[in-house]
Here is the input.
Amino acid sequence: MIGGRTGRVLWASWRATAAGAAEYRGDMLTGTLVSIVWLGVSSVPSVVVSLRAADAGGWGLPQLLYLLSIWYLMDAVMWIVIMPNIGQWPEQVRTGSLDAVLLKPVNSLIYCSLRVLGVQDLPKLLLAAGLAVTAVALGGGPPTPAAAVASVIAVLCGLVLLWALGVITSYKVLSQVQWDASFVLHAALNLGRVPTSLYGPLFRTVLTWVLPVAFITTVPAEVMFGMASPWMAVVALALTAVVVLIVVVLWRRELGRYTGAMS
Amino acid sequence: MFGLFRVELQARSTYRAQIVLGALGWVVPLAFMALWRGAAADNPVDGIDQAQFTTYFGVLLALSNLSLTGNVVFAMSSRIHNGQLSVMLMRPMPPTVVPVLESAATNVFRLPVVIVAVPLIVILGGGVVRGGVSVWVTAVVVAVLGAVAVAYVATIVATVAFWLTKADGVMGLVVGLEWVLGGMVAPVVLLPQPLPTVLVHQPFWFAQGAPAQMLAGIGDVSAFGTIAEAAVWVVGLHLLLRVVWRRALRRYEAVGT
Here is the structure.
């Protein structure tokens, strides 16, 4: 999907973004401290639940913290990749600057959705990884090596699904400049803060098969602790492949309707 | 002031659909509702059952949707750095009121969504409102006084932008404080001691946690004591803001256009 040329152009764009962000190192330090505080705030419910109750629907502290680490990773990717790129589409369509991006001889979907990095949020990735390792250690590790591998695969699928959800909620802006469905993306991610199994049956179905929130945060955590079969990673892979295919088709169709606005 | 509110209302009426959708997109209390309902599925958690958690987080969903903090705390820095504050200082009213009026105008369009969606969620989740009319009235009075006090806190924190060029991160911590101190992540009575004893005496709890606890029947919240304490906070923070604002304005260099 990412050709050699697209990959090289992306790499050059990321280096340029990193070089620009290097001018604001102090900002990154402050941002990291704030991120640590926010991670602490986000973990309060899991810790307090474990202090006051045996578990929440079968989810103990290690499982909840591991799920939180995955959620935090997704949130980081939201601010590192999705918001700086997809979040800018409405403005780029209005000003016509998207035209210049689309004219480049690279994969337009990949380039439009990945070319800028929110560098100041990169330390969040390390925080998420640190919390994940701590949570897995607290839980006594995965039941089998296959569970760990399957969980990692499911996390990677979750990242792609989040990106796809970002594209799906915003691609319509190419033909309808007032389009704004980003609230669906934010709502979906926030609902993924807790296991989807804790929601009611109707909500749970929606969060699994309509908005794939379950596959973004819950399934990777379930697989890691043996609460779901490692084969769920294969289901996640198949679902991700289907969703990506849909995204590519929708993007191409929408590009055909894009008229451009460059003055 | 009323004229400005009317103008803000008209401006927002153009984007009313986006405001309504924004209200639907705020679901964090729903996530925590699901977590705590799950924890109370077999047995009540410290005497709080599933129905009470549903009501508690339902009320929080309503109050946090109408919270003024975000706009108040973030609006000031851009106005300082682009010089818009200069124009606001020329007007015959405090510039600190403007973000509050803007948020209030937004809330006019959010309110219908909240009035319809929140009771529906509470009913579907099996929530029950405890107490009669007096509890409702007390909860509303405490929530309003708490919201005013929190708006003062947010404005005081927003003045950090007079001293720091990039203060968004520090300001964002106020929102984080609101989550913990206001009881959004968990009712403060469930936090480890001495936090429950301490946290019931601060504005964030008056704005959100206290009314939610009253309507859900969680803990023993003294109506008169809570109202009196919230009122004292409002007066105290008003006086503090006057001092801080004067000092902050001395730092203002009126840059921008």
Summary: The mean pLDDT of chain B is 87. Residues 223-251 of chain B form the longest helix (29 residues).
